Structure formats: C-alpha cells, structure tokens
Fold this protein.
Amino acid sequence: MRGNALHLPAGALGEGVGVPLTVVPDAAALTHAFADVILAEYRAAKAAGRDRVLFIVPVGPVGQYDLLAEAVNAGQALSDLTLLGMDEYLAPDGGWIAEDHPLSFRGHLRRHLTSRVDPARAPRVVFPHPARLGEPAEVIAEHGGVDVCFGGVGIAGHVAFNEPPEPGERTDAAEFADRPTRVLRLSRETRTINAVTATGGAIDLVPERAVTIGMREILGARRIRLFMNRPWQRGIIRLMLHGPVTPAVPASLLRRHPDFAVTATEDVVQSPLPVLR
C-alpha cells in the first residue's frame, strides 16, 4: 500500500481520505497562508468566547512569525494568546541548547516575533523543558485545551519530534498516539534532512537529542493544521494521506482526528518520480 500511495499523481492527492488539502503556488504563498490562518483561528477563538487562546506551534515552516509581528505592530494585540512550542533541541548536558544557538527554536520565536513587538501586546511563549515534562499538560489544562495545533511534517512523518519507532521497537497506533511530552534521540533520517536544510549537510552540527510535545497533546487539540513547503515532502505527504495509519508514519495518525487539514505548495504535491541528478 505504501508503494501505491507513492505513485499517486498530483491530481489525485487528498481524494477520498476526508482531509481537506489546500494547494498554494509556492513557499512565499504558504508563509502568508500560515500567518493568515493563525490570525483567523485566534480571532475565531476569541469570537467564540475564549478568554485565553492556546496554539501549539512549530518552527518549520518559518516566516509566519515575521508576519505575525507585523500584524501586532499594525494593531493586532495577541497578549491573551499562548504559543506552546512543539519541541527544542538539547545540548550534550541534557538541557536546552542556548537560546542564541542558530538552531534554537526558542531563539527563533524571540528573534522573529516577541522581540519585535511591544511586550504588552506580545503572545506568551512556552517551550517543553527536559526537566519539566509535565509543564505542557499543565499549560493545556490552564487554557481548557489546545485550540489549534499547527505543524509541519518530517521526512519520515514525524510531527513535532515524534519519531517513528526504530527497527525492533514494539508499539501500535493506540500506544503511539498516547505518547506524552518526552525527551528522545532523533532518528538518522531527521538529523540528515535537517543537516541538508540547516547546516549545509554537516550532520555533526545537528543535535542528537530533543524534547518534544507528544502525540497525546497534538491529537488532543480541537483542530490540527499542517503546512508543507519542502520538495522532499512529496513522498511523505502521500504516505500521510493515503498510506496505512501506522506509527511508522506518525503523521498518518492525524487522519483519525475529526478536524485535520493540510496546506501544501505546488512543488510538494508533485509526484516523487525517481530521477538521477
């Protein structure tokens, strides 16, 4: 079935699976769409009477936070919004990497959003910490649940850093879906593709471990919205939407969620035809 999914043409992608798929022209359009959806979901939550709004958010895709900063500076206050970061890399000593590290997700949110706006109008930002793994659940309980989980998808199907099981690891969809916030070792696939996109192929510069929000927190959100803009996501978008629902492709478990939608670029939906380059 995986092979069949990988051979689906662009025009058939998303058909018959009950997951709305929006296709935008390019990465710039996706960045704007991402920012627009964040603002629209925030306003909808406020209109529905939510005193405090909670989103789980990724760093990757990037770009949407600069647009949110522009919106705040243009008059859109987000002081009653909490952004719960999906994950963060860890240093060899087991703590967060430094916020000024180029790969720090905390640093990215600070540089591209919170430091660029009036603190009185800025959202609250919380990231999972390896020494406080229960904190995300506490934040979620304080807010009465997650309004929307936003995210991207890794090359092996991870959402946040919920990596597929390693060979020989025993699990099933139910157990995997209930995995909470935790510390884990990143897969070889994740470190390799992150090296391609972030360190010029220098795998040794990509941290080996991370702390991540769990599938439990992601699947517990009221809505899930994924955004995909990498050419190497052509295969995984097909497995996510049309392959088996399995921990081997963690994002496939999102198909069981009642309000799950995907936005992807034209490049991502093209067929992953083999070619030597």
Observations:
- The chain is about 30% helix and 15% strand.
- The mean pLDDT is 96.
- The chain has one domain: 20-266.
